[in-house]
Amino acid sequence: MDHKTVKDGKVITMDELITENERLANEVKQLTEKVAELSEQPKNLEEQLSTRQLCFGGGHLTAHEANHLLNNLPLEISFIDKNDIVKYFNERSESPEEMMFVRTKDMLGADVADSHPSKSHGKVMPLVRDLKAGKRDIESMWFKKKNQYIHVSFKAIFNENGEYLGIMEYVQDIQPFFELPSEMKVGLRELDESN
C-alpha cells in the first residue's frame, strides 16, 4: 500500500517524505556541527591573532598588528561604548604612572562615570550626553600638568547609518610642539603656504 500525504498543497509519497526528512536531518546535523566548531575556543589563539586578517576601510591588519599599531600611536586612546561602558584603551606604556591619564585593566567593563574622578562628573557626564545625542560631534580642551601640556578630545563615533556607537577619547602631550625650533615652525608654515 502506497501511503501519500499532502505537503504545501502537493501530494507526496511516504518515500518522498522520508527522503525529505533525511535531507533536513542531515542539514540540521551539519548546522549543529558548524555551530559547535564556531563556538570552540581556538586551539592556538596567539597564532590566530597573528594570522587572521581584519578588514578595515583602508586595508587589512591582523589583530596582532592592529594592537601594536594602536599601542605605538603618539597618543592615548580609550573607547566608551553606546552603553557608557569602558571597552578599550591602548597601552602606550607598561607603567600606568607614565600615562597622561591613568587607566587600569579593572576599568574595562566599568561605567564611564566610575572611571573618572568624581570632581569631573559635572563636566564629563553632560559632555557624554551631548555627544550621544549628536548635540556635539567633538569636544577638545587642554591643560597644563607638571611639565606637559595635555590636549584631550572626545569624539562621538557613529556608523555609516548614523547609529551611535560610542565615544573615543584621545589624549596627547602637546608640549613637544611648543619646543620645536622656530626655524622648523616657520619651515612648516612655508611648506603649508606653498601648497
UniProtKB/TrEMBL annotation:
This is DUF438 domain-containing protein. Pfam families: PAS_10 (PF13596). It comes from the Bacteria. Keywords: Coiled coil. Residues 14-48 form a coiled coil. It comes from Oceanobacillus indicireducens. The lineage of its organism: Bacteria, Bacillati, Bacillota, Bacilli, Bacillales.
